[in-house]
Amino acid sequence: MNPIRLAMLEDNAHFARALQKLLQQAGFEVTAHYSSASAALKLLQPPDCAIDVLLCDIGLPGRDGISVLAPLKKKFPELRIIMLTSFDDPAQILRAISEGADGYVLKLSEPALMAEQIGQILQGAPPLSASVADLVLRTLRGARVGNAASPVDALSGREIEVLDALRRGLSYKETARELGIALDTVRNHVRKIYEKLGVNSARAAIARMSGRP
C-alpha cells in the first residue's frame, strides 16, 4: 500500500519542519510545503494533483487558509483538506466546515499529538476533536452570544503569530528570530495585543484567545 501523500500550507517554517518530521516518522510522505495561499493555488493545478491531503493553516499572511478550500475542492473533489489553527475560534471553525474542510486540528496541541490526530482523521475518526466538537455544538445552540466578535478578530495576522510563539514558550528574542523581525517590533506587538484584549500578561492573552476565562 502506497503511503499517504501530504502537502503543507503553513507560513511558520520552524513549526512546519517539526510537524513534517513527525508526520514522516508516522509513515506519511510529505511532498510539498507552501508558505502562502496564493502559492498553493498557483502550484496545485489540474489535471494532476500529486497529493492526497493538504494540511492547511488558517492564519496566513494576506489571503487566509480557509479561502483556498472552495477553489481546491472544486478542482480536486477527492483531495482531503485538514485545517490547522492556533485558536479555537467558533466563527473560524464553522466557516471552515461550511467551505468543505475535512478536519480541524488545533496547534495548541504538541506537534506529536497533532500528527496522531491527523492520522486518526485520515483513518476515519471524527474530523473534530471532542473539545472542538463541543465548542461548535455550544455555539450552534446559542450558548455564546450570537454575534459577539471573537477575540481573534481584534488581532492582526502578525500579532497572532507573536502570541502563538509566546504560547509555545519562546522568549521575545526567540520570537523575533523565528519571525524575522526586530526585538522592539515584538515588544510593540505584545503591547498592542494586551491593549486590544484588555489583559496585562501573555498568559491572560493566550487564555482569552483560547476562549478560557
Tell me what you see in this structure.
With 213 residues, this protein is α/β, with parallel strands linked by helices. It has two domains: 5-140, Rossmann fold (3-Layer(aba) Sandwich), CATH 3.40.50.2300; 151-209, Winged helix-like DNA-binding domain superfamily/Winged helix DNA-binding domain (Arc Repressor Mutant, subunit A), CATH 1.10.10.10. It has helices at residues 13-25, 37-43, 69-75, 90-98, 111-122, 130-140, 157-167, 172-179, 183-197, 202-209, and strands at residues 5-9, 29-34, 53-57, 80-85, 103-106. Strands 2-1-3-4-5 form a five-stranded parallel sheet, with helices on both faces. Helix 4 (90-98) links the parallel strand 4 and strand 5 (103-106). It starts with a strand and ends with a helix.
Helices and strands, with pairings:
Layout: E1 5-9, H1 13-25, E2 29-34, H2 37-43, E3 53-57, H3 69-75, E4 80-85, H4 90-98, E5 103-106, H5 111-122, H6 130-140, H7 157-167, H8 172-179, H9 183-197, H10 202-209
Parallel strand pairs: 1-2, 1-3, 3-4, 4-5
Helix pairs in contact: 1-5, 7-8, 7-9, 7-10, 8-9
